[in-house]
Design brief:
Shape: globular
Strand content: under 5%
Largest sheet: 2 strands, parallel
Structural class: mainly alpha
């Protein structure tokens, strides 16, 4: 509902021109993909902007709009200054409903955080399409402690566009929060929409095959996203279970894209938990599933997963062959067939994964070169990945004997850990600090170790 006194945004409406709100929303999503953002823009969001309900966009939408209209400012697009919206919100609710990213310091990363305007779309869809218990269990909106097991869904509940769209948006929201904050503070809240999605599959009545396919795909992608949060926060058994759940969903639905994604993550988990042979097998299975999909970038990522497993086995020649296939496939460029979840996979990620291969093989200087390249290429908006890449660089430089540079990189990781919660990154930084303790001498190392020790309770 539009708030009382909202002033229509006529400038934004003029920019839409003759396109429908839905067509314009699709153009916004395409522009977002061009710059690596993830926004779940739909016709309703455009309507909220044009009505004046959204007085300024969050930072993700701001970047997309300024990309769409080069040279324009937020004022040119009809939006209010962020500071004015923040001030009004602070006086009323202590939050900023019209400008969700307004706070200067990041809020605790939960699914309840209003980091994207579509969050209330998810809330309303689940609230109006089922019981209150279903809504609470689905998105963890603070409506109580009810779990999905207690959410008595109506018998033969019909599942349609609203429910499927809500599941898909939940996936995007989780990914967005993970990109910014890491998995540490998100996992348990994210498990709630996952249970809701599978409850819809188990207890719902789906009349259209297209709806069923989308719901299976959405539930499977949600399982992978939640599995990744578990993986990133060190809950490896939970991650393995979620990835297996996604793989089973893919097999039931006959969905090769979901199957390839599940194998991709399963391979990554196997590598991280010391099962390199399993990592290779899962990556090879993923490549077989991905073969007919027409996405060279997906094949490149799966080849990198294989390379990581082979590096863990000490198979240098096999690793180099897999890296060669990855570079060749990556060189074919982006494709319309690339899955939506692969927005993170750019040259920076390729460099990072190759760095990890050389690190596993004990070639520290080569690993450091690729890790340094990854940090130089990484988009600063992907905060968690930036911290991850710098943590890898810190470790590789320390083991290569470049202790002063390693300490400088480590300081940059500590700066980012005020925003990111990731057990993986903390573990990597701890390993680097252990190496540096044995190589004291430079003032940079001493300063880093002292700060790391002081920050130990926080990081």
């Amino acid at each position: 509902m539009v708030s009382t006194g909202a002033v229509p945004n006529l400038a934004f409406r003029r920019l839409r021109g003759p396109r429908s709100a839905g067509e314009f929303a699709a153009a916004v999503r395409r522009s977002a993909r061009e710059i690596g953002e993830q926004v779940a823009c739909d016709a309703r969001y455009i309507g909220r902007v044009e009505s004046g309900e959204i007085r300024c966009p969050n930072y993700a939408y701001e970047r997309v709009f300024l990309h769409m209209f080069p040279g324009a400012t937020l004022a040119d697009l009809g939006f209010s200054a962020r500071e004015s919206v923040r001030g009004r919100a602070a006086r009323t609710t202590g939050n900023a409903p019209d400008c969700p990213d307004a706070p200067d310091t990041p809020p605790p990363p939960t699914l309840q955080s209003d980091t994207d305007e579509e969050s209330d779309v998810l809330r309303r869809v689940f609230m109006t399409s089922g019981t209150t218990a279903m809504a609470a269990a689905s998105l963890g909106l603070g409506l109580g402690t009810t779990t999905i097991a207690a959410a008595a869904l109506p018998a033969r509940r019909r599942v349609g566009e609203a429910e499927v769209t809500a599941v898909e948006k939940a996936v995007r929201q989780i990914r967005l929060l993970d990109d910014r904050h890491g998995g540490g503070g998100l996992y348990r809240r994210a498990a709630q929409p996952l249970r809701a999605a599978y409850a819809l599959l188990d207890q719902g009545t789906i009349t259209r095959r297209s709806t069923s396919d989308r719901l299976h795909a959405g539930a499977g992608e949600l399982a992978i996203s939640v599995g990744w949060l578990a993986h990133d926060s060190g809950r490896f058994d939970d991650a393995r279970s979620h990835y297996a759940e996604a793989l089973a969903t893919a097999r039931v639905a006959g969905d090769p894209a979901l199957e390839a994604h599940a194998f991709c993550n399963a391979s990554f988990l196997a590598r991280d938990t010391g099962r390199p042979r399993e990592a290779v097998r899962a990556a090879e299975a993923g490549q077989r599933a991905a073969g007919p999909l027409g996405s060279p970038r997906l094949l490149a990522l799966l080849a990198l997963r294989e390379a990581g497993g082979r590096a863990g086995l000490g198979d240098r020649s096999g690793c180099e062959r897999a890296l060669g296939r990855a570079h060749t496939a990556f060189g074919h460029g982006a494709s319309d067939a690339d899955p939506e979840w692969m927005t993170f996979f750019r040259e920076a990620e390729l460099e990072m994964l190759e760095a990890q291969c050389w690190s596993a093989l004990g070639d520290w200087p080569r690993a450091a070169r690729h890790a340094r390249r990854a940090t130089q290429l990484q988009d600063p908006h992907f905060t968690r990945n930036l911290a991850l890449y710098r943590a890898e660089l810190t470790t590789d430089l320390a083991r290569a004997g470049a202790t002063a540079e390693a300490a400088t990189a480590g300081q940059q990781v500590l700066d980012l850990l005020t925003q990111v919660q990731s057990s993986r990154i903390r573990a990597m930084l701890a390993a680097a600090a252990q190496v540096l303790r044995a190589q004291r001498g430079s003032p940079e190392v001493t300063e880093f170790l002292e700060r790391y020790g002081d920050a130990g309770a926080q990081v």
